[in-house]
């Protein structure tokens, strides 16, 4: 248990909200193992399945927040709440731009993010994905402001924007951050998933994480993103590839 139950519950709630991408108040039970992994919590698969069954007795494949909280609380180890919250935060900070970057560097980062989510190479991305991309870039945004920017760049309401439109939206929210601090954050995120210290994470693990972050991504979308990342086809992503993916360098 965490030192402060309120802090622990706040962390669990943030994890739930991050994966409840449709804001339905429910998450798929298949995502729970991914969430526990992202929180750095070990678990026994059989024990987890029993807890899921207890909290989803009708077998709907979904649990609400209360059910998830009971499951997550069961596995949470004694750990400083602040440290655990930091781990959760670092696990999902992608593409943070370096400090003092020029406009060309910033545009390279935006282009890399666009290309990863334009999996069909159509030159367009769904506007529904923009909030996911901004979240993956570690960029805070105001929902109303984002919707206004989307409307400005998709005046006909097609549900898609081209790169220029996306660049205008993303540029509005991009913040600068110290490059050394950014690299440290990425190391922490990588370490969280490379739990055995092998120096790499598998593309299947990365695919599972991406799928949990955005359940609108199809298998084809995910395969396209993985292909962009795993350029050498090794089936693994080492830290250099991970850094390249996150920073666009």
Describe this protein's structure.
With 249 residues, the protein is mostly helical. The protein folds into three domains: 75 residues, Recoverin, domain 1; 96 residues, Recoverin, domain 1 (Orthogonal Bundle); 54 residues, Recoverin, domain 1 (Orthogonal Bundle), CATH 1.10.238.10. The chain is 58% helix and 7% strand. It has 13 helices and six strands. The strands form three sheets. A two-stranded antiparallel sheet has the order 1-2. A two-stranded antiparallel sheet has the order 3-4. It has a two-stranded antiparallel ribbon with strand order 5-6. Helix 1 packs across helix 4, helix 3 packs antiparallel against helix 4 and helix 8 packs antiparallel against helix 9. The longest helix has 15 residues. It is globular. About 8% of the residues have low confidence. Belongs to the troponin C family.
Portion of residues in beta strands equals 5-15%
Quickly give the structural class. mainly alpha
CATH superfamily of the largest domain: EF-hand
Detail the poorly predicted runs.
78-82, 84-99
**Neighbour order of strands in the largest sheet:** 1-2
- Compute the number of structural domains: 3
Can you count the beta strands? 6
CATH topology of the largest domain, by name, is Recoverin, domain 1
Mean pLDDT: 75
Shape: globular
Number of helices: 13
Largest sheet: 2 strands, antiparallel
Relative helix content: 55-70%
